[in-house]
Write a structure and sequence with these properties.
With about 260 residues, the protein is α/β, with parallel strands linked by helices. The protein has ten helices and eight strands. Helix 1 runs parallel beside helix 3, helix 4 runs parallel beside helix 5 and helix 8 packs parallel to helix 9.
């Protein structure tokens, strides 16, 4: 298990300064917001700032336009096009994968009952699109990473079980999923058990406490979760995605120390 930090959590006049700090704070990886990488000038700046460093790109976090499950075909096609570009970039940056939330909020596709409910239509569409994106990801040398969110942010994929069911239907090595401790803390009745059941599909983890602040500022049992990850042989990145309740130069190194004490 390796620790990463989202670049947006760290201040700096440019990527070079941000990456300097992320390394100094003790992280092995950086998670990048996808939208900035679609800008050629910013992508070039990222590549230059990474050159010669031990710091790795853990993942690319969304940042694409459109929506995979929008009712309008143009919006779905826009999402797919941007995601393919980001998958190519992810392959070039040697990122584990591109984090993908299929839809935020309620369904946008009409309920077609009794033929099919809106969720049935969405899941069938998601599987088909993931197969298309998965083929592109395989050629790019990276992964599509589905992210379940809590019920207050999306109606569709809320639990790891639902994410792994989609992965199983797609049945491609290039389509996997991730878990987020903040969302799992809300949705899972047993986080270690959910992790164990998702073992064949988990390739990334987000870290945030129950308060959505840095680990250690809430009641989430990270030790039990990390033990479950160790038991399934998890070896990829765990990236911070949370608020910082203080000065980053003090809080982030302290968080790294706290997490390393918990990692078995």
């Amino acid at each position: 298990m390796k620790l990463a930090c989202q670049d947006s959590m760290v201040s700096g006049k440019d990527f070079n300064e941000k990456f300097d700090k992320i390394e100094q704070y003790g992280f092995e990886g950086v998670e990048l917001w996808g939208a900035q990488l679609l800008d050629e000038e910013k992508l070039s700046a990222v590549e230059k700032a990474l050159h010669g460093r031990s710091l790795k790109v853990s993942t690319i976090c969304a940042g694409y336009r459109g929506c995979l499950l929008d009712s309008e075909r143009a919006q779905r096609e826009l999402a797919v096009a941007d995601m393919k570009n980001l998958l190519d970039i992810g392959g070039e940056l040697d990122a584990v994968g591109l984090i993908t939330v299929p839809i935020f909020g309620p369904a946008r596709i009409p309920d077609l009952s009794p033929m099919a409910s809106a969720i049935e239509v969405e899941l069938n569409l998601l599987v088909d699109l993931c197969k298309e994106l998965g083929e592109h990801a395989a050629n790019a040398g990276t992964l599509v990473l589905l992210e379940p969110l809590n019920r207050y942010e999306t109606h569709l994929l809320n639990r790891l079980e639902q994410g792994r069911e989609v992965c199983a239907r797609v049945s491609m090595p290039s389509v996997k999923m991730m878990g987020d401790f903040f969302h799992m803390n809300i949705e899972e009745t047993d986080v270690p058990a959910a992790i164990a059941e998702a073992k064949d599909h988990l390739r990334h983890i987000h870290l945030a406490d129950s308060t959505r602040l840095l680990p250690g500022y809430g009641h989430t049992d990270f030790a039990a979760g990390f033990d479950a990850l160790k038991k399934i042989g998890y070896e990829w990145f765990m990236s911070l995605e949370c608020g910082i309740p203080g000065k980053q130069e003090e809080e982030l190194p302290r968080c790294v120390e706290y997490l390393n004490e918990l990692i078995p």
